[in-house]
Structures are given as structure tokens and as C-alpha cells.
Design a protein that fits this description.
Keywords: Endonuclease, Hydrolase, Membrane, Nuclease, Transmembrane, Transmembrane helix
Strand order of the largest sheet: 3-4-2-1-14-13
Radius of gyration: 22 Å
Structural class: alpha+beta
Strand content: 25-35%
Number of helices: 11
Protein name: Endonuclease/exonuclease/phosphatase family protein
Pfam families: Exo_endo_phos (PF03372)
GO molecular function, one term: endonuclease activity
Shape: elongated
């Protein structure tokens, strides 16, 4: 304890203090990071919660170094992280609701489509959305007993216990179909359901975070949702991006995340072997999310996600 009382505790660890301030500023000002060079801003925002891992590392180093300056500087990243993500640490799951939905990127190379389909159906969802379908017939066969109504458009599909109307592909500027829109006739009234699979993104050493095609598709999907005449809207799908990613703002600015509003924790869905980001989304408008959760792993590289809402 005597060593903590000498004046050197304020002189030691200045580099650690600087790193703590930089970490805090990176989280606090992440929206100011430019996307012009390698989509640096979007890349940072995709894994933004994980920057918090730097806090315990710096804390331990500050203790070892016996630096009061570094410990005080750590308050900036701690307060910033808690402000950004502290609300996600609590369980906001509620009771009730009358409409359950689930979505799953099943993986084009899935070795057991039937088991994957049954696992998603076991959630009790009234509507199931599947993405990356290359052998839709195997999923159709596995789900036929539970869902009387379905439609597959390109590589995305919707299965429903309630009648479907006005099913049509949505142009997200890809040249092939990876999104659809349908009206689900629920007992509580019509709900517009969008199913989408945004283009993939890559992290390349010489190009950074390559997400240009995804960003253009997000803008197109956002425009379609903005023009949707139904008051109740649900978006289900693999958006290849998180709610923090500014490039998805054309979509996320119009809809509410079921996980953020009524989930327990972060709800990371990808990769299934060690989930690090929630890129599989359920978002709503004109309805109240009651609960949201991830489902057990299937043979896909994504986890299925589900939510229950109150219409």
C-alpha cells in the first residue's frame, strides 16, 4: 500500500493512460471514423462491443504498473462502453405476445437440410424465413406438415401458418433474387414481412472491409420498406451487418431491433462455432417486441434467431 502513496503513481503508466483514452475515444467517436478508406468505420462498428475487452487488459496492466493515472483514464472507456452496451446486458424478455417469427441462414452447403428445417420449426414460429436456399425442395418437404403456406423467391423463402398474399421479389440491385416481400394474414390483421439476404462482406488486407455491394443493396431495401403501405412490418434475414453499422442506416433507421428491445444479452448469431456478431436480424415496425432469442446451432455456420411480438 505504501507504494501506492508515493508521488510516482501519477508519473507511472502514462502510455497506458494514453491507450485508455484512445480506446475510450474510439468507442465514443466511432461514428466519426471515415468509411472512405476500406470502410474502416463499418468494420469497427461491426465488432464494436468487443473493443471492451481492452478494458480489463489495461486495468490489469495499470494495477501491475501501480499507475493511478492509468486507472483514472480507464474511466473514459468504461463509462462509454456501459453507455453503449450496458442496456444489452440485462434480460428484457417479457411475457405474452401473439406472433412468433424465426429466421435462419441455412448455409448453401448444409449437409442436413431436413434436420435444420425441423430445428427452426421447433421454435414454434408462426412464420419462418430461410436464406441461402440452394435446394429448396428439401426444406419444403420438411416444413410441409407445419406450414401450409410458403413461397420461395430465388434463394430466400417464407413459410407461414397463416395465408400469404402479394408475395413478390424485392429488387436489391443484385441482378438475382435474394429478397422478397409478402403479406401475412394473421388473426390480428395483415403484416408485411420482408425476407432478405444482403450481399456478403469480406475483410481483405489490401482492400479493407469490402461492403460496397451490401451497402447498395441496403439502400434499395430501405427504399422498399419506406414505401411499404402496411402499418405493421417485420424484416427477417441475414443482413451481413450489425445494428451499429452505419451503412445499414437506410434499414435500421426505420425499424426496431427485437433483440435490442426485448432480448437477453447481445444475441450474437455468427459464426455459429464462436458467435462474435449479430448479423441475423429481426426488426419490426408498428408492433411491440416481447422477447427475442437465439436458437440452438444447426448444420449452418449461422445460428437461427427468433422473436415474439405483440400485434
Amino acid at each position: 500500500m505504501d507504494r501506492w502513496r508515493d508521488r510516482d503513481i501519477w508519473r507511472r503508466g502514462l502510455v497506458l493512460a494514453a491507450l485508455a483514452v484512445l480506446l475510450g475515444l474510439l468507442m465514443l467517436l466511432h461514428t466519426q471514423l471515415p468509411n472512405r478508406v476500406g470502410n474502416l468505420g463499418s468494420l469497427t462498428e461491426t465488432f464494436l462491443p468487443w473493443l471492451g475487452l481492452g478494458i480489463p487488459v489495461l486495468f490489469v496492466l495499470a494495477i501491475v504498473r501501480r499507475s493511478a493515472t492509468a486507472l483514472i483514464a480507464l474511466l473514459l472507456p468504461v463509462v462509454t462502453w456501459v453507455n453503449l452496451f450496458g442496456g444489452l446486458l440485462s434480460d428484457k424478455t417479457g411475457k405474452g405476445g401473439n406472433f412468433t417469427v424465426a429466421t435462419h441462414n441455412v448455409n448453401a452447403e448444409n449437409p442436413d437440410p431436413a434436420a435444420t428445417a425441423r430445428a427452426v420449426a421447433a421454435s414454434g414460429a408462426d412464420v419462418v424465413a430461410l436464406e441461402e436456399l440452394t435446394n429448396a425442395s428439401r426444406y419444403e418437404k420438411a416444413l410441409a406438415g407445419t406450414y401450409k403456406h410458403h413461397s420461395v423467391q430465388g434463394t430466400v423463402g417464407i413459410w407461414s401458418k397463416y395465408p400469404l398474399e402479394l408475395v413478390q421479389p424485392v429488387d436489391i440491385r443484385l441482378g438475382w433474387v435474394r429478397a422478397l416481400r409478402a403479406t401475412v394474414r394473421t388473426p390480428q390483421g395483415p403484416v408485411a414481412v420482408y425476407v432478405a439476404h444482403m450481399p456478403s462482406v469480406r475483410v481483405k488486407f489490401n482492400a479493407g472491409f469490402t461492403a460496397g455491394q451490401r451497402d447498395r443493396s441496403a439502400e434499395a431495401l430501405g427504399q422498399a420498406i419506406a414505401q411499404e403501405p402496411e402499418k405493421r412490418v417485420i424484416l427477417l434475414g441475414d443482413l451481413n451487418g450489425t445494428m451499429n453499422d452505419r451503412s445499414l442506416a437506410p434499414i435500421t433507421s426505420q425499424l426496431r431491433s427485437a433483440q435490442g428491445a426485448a432480448g437477453d444479452g447481445f444475441g450474437f448469431s455468427w459464426p455459429a462455432s464462436f458467435p462474435m456478431a449479430r448479423i441475423d436480424q429481426i426488426m419490426v415496425r408498428g408492433m411491440d417486441p416481447v422477447s427475442a432469442w437465439t436458437l440452438p446451432a444447426t448444420k449452418s455456420d449461422h445460428l437461427p434467431v427468433a422473436a415474439r411480438v405483440r400485434i
